[in-house]
């Protein structure tokens, strides 16, 4: 998919400048050539990445540059479609030739090219900068009054890597602890790359502490890079790893079942999968029997319908979507691939679903425009309070 998309980038570069006038042949060649060269850089980086000849440390930076180029050309595609639609509509107006010339004018298109480069760079910057804490109330069905006000911090999609490094992880840990949560959950995609490449950048996670524990469930990216090694490493760090398992927590005399389920990625047969277990919904449902309230950590929000259908889950906490990355892209691209769930709170039958925008994202598509990363602190509320 990455390679196929990359092949389209030079075509977009040509389409951007082809109708622009007045340009002499040398001017057109120079502008088109620069744009095609940039597109070929994206194609070249995608090829190097897919050849898998470098260490993951180098590969992560290759992915970042590819992502920057890809975002630019996504914006180019949107601009070209809007430009040509505007040009066609202008042809229907009186004095259409004068208005239509503005859409294909040199100044307008050169200005658009500059804005696109700046927006793509801003998007990557937004994706790399550490997130802030955002607190919100969340009503949980069947939550006992004794648990009303429990503060649960959600650290979804850390995607720790050689690009983001230790300092960013430390900033996230410090901000989370400063929020004084009662409970901390990590619903998948904690790291990218193998343990030998990214393990040292995850070390600050060992500092996470909360009165009712720190719990995590696997995400699809753990399945891509030596799943067993990462899960063992997280356990050594003192984190509660839940692999189709349930922990029963006693809070103010009532019981909360905290479950973590395997990711849907395990159902795929692909050469890039390196271990991992498939989701086992009956196991987590059985593990939560007898509890007053049941919270499920499921990386992909697509699992919400199956969880709600059991009638045993009160709250599912997910990540995976990164909030949709960019306005427009969130609703038109990300939502359809995730059963319509992108970010925030949803009601799925009798269950509440919360999808975090995440504290990070994969280096190959780090962009954020209009969708902020977030350390979510959910203040759990009883419906009967």
What would a concise description of this structure say?
With 385 residues, the chain is of the alpha/beta class. It is 42% helix and 17% strand. The chain is elongated, with a radius of gyration of 24 Å.
Strand tally, please?
A: 12
The SSE string, one letter per element, is HHHHHEEHEHEHHEEEHEHEHEEE
Strand order of the largest sheet: 1-12-2-3-4-5
Span of the ends, CA to CA: 49 Å
Low-confidence runs of at least 5 consecutive residues: none
Draw up the topology in text.
Layout: H1 2-17, H2 25-51, H3 56-90, H4 96-103, H5 106-128, E1 132-139, E2 151-154, H6 165-178, E3 183-187, H7 195-198, E4 214-217, H8 220-224, H9 227-236, E5 240-241, E6 245-251, E7 254-260, H10 281-287, E8 293-297, H11 304-310, E9 315-318, H12 329-334, E10 344-348, E11 351-355, E12 374-381
Parallel strand pairs: 1-12, 2-3, 3-4, 4-5, 7-8, 8-9, 9-11
Antiparallel strand pairs: 2-12, 6-7, 10-11
Helix pairs in contact: 1-2, 1-3, 2-3, 3-4, 3-5
Structural summary, described in words:
- The chain contains twelve helices and twelve strands.
- It is α/β, with parallel strands linked by helices.
- The chain has a six-stranded mixed β-sheet, covered by helices on one side. It has a six-stranded mixed β-sheet with strand order 6-7-8-9-11-10.
- Strand 8, helix 11 and strand 9 form a beta-alpha-beta unit.
- Helix 1 runs antiparallel to helix 2 (25-51) and helix 3 packs antiparallel against helix 4.
- The longest helix has 35 residues, at 56-90.
- The model has no long low-confidence stretch (mean pLDDT 92).
């Amino acid at each position: 998919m990455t390679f196929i998309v990359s092949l389209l980038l030079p075509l977009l570069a040509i389409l951007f400048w082809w109708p622009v006038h007045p340009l002499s042949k040398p001017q057109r060649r120079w502008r088109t050539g620069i744009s095609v060269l940039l597109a070929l850089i994206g194609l070249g980086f995608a090829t190097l990445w897919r050849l898998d000849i470098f260490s993951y440390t180098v590969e992560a930076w290759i992915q970042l540059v590819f992502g920057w180029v890809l975002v630019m050309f996504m914006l180019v595609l949107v601009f070209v479609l809007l430009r040509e639609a505007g040009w066609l509509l202008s042809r229907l107006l009186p004095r259409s030739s004068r208005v239509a010339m503005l859409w294909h004018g040199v100044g307008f298109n050169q200005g658009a090219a500059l804005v696109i480069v700046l927006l793509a760079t801003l998007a990557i910057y937004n994706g790399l900068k550490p997130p802030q804490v955002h607190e919100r109330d969340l009503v949980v069905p069947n939550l006992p009054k004794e648990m009303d006000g429990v503060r649960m911090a959600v650290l979804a999609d850390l995607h720790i890597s050689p690009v983001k490094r230790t300092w960013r992880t430390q900033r996230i840990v410090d901000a989370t602890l400063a929020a004084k949560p009662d409970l901390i959950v990590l619903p998948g995609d904690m790291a990218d790359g193998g343990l030998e490449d990214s393990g040292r950048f995850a070390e600050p996670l060992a500092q996470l502490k909360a009165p009712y524990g720190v719990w995590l469930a696997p995400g699809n990216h753990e399945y891509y890079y030596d799943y067993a090694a990462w899960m063992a490493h997280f356990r050594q760090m003192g984190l509660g790893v839940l692999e189709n398992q349930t922990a029963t927590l006693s809070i103010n005399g009532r019981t909360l079942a905290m479950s973590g389920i395997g990711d849907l990625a395990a159902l795929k047969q692909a050469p890039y999968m390196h271990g991992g277990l498939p989701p086992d919904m009956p196991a987590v449902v059985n593990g939560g029997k007898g509890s007053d309230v049941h919270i499920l950590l499921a990386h992909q929000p697509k699992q919400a319908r199956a969880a709600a259908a059991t009638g045993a889950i009160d709250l599912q906490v997910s990540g995976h979507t990164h909030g949709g990355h960019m306005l427009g892209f969130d609703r038109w691209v990300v939502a359809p691939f995730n059963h319509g769930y992108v970010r925030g709170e949803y009601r799925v039958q009798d269950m509440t679903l919360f999808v975090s925008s995440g504290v990070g994202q994969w280096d190959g598509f780090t962009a954020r425009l209009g969708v902020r990363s977030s350390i979510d602190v959910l203040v759990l509320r009883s419906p009967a309070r």
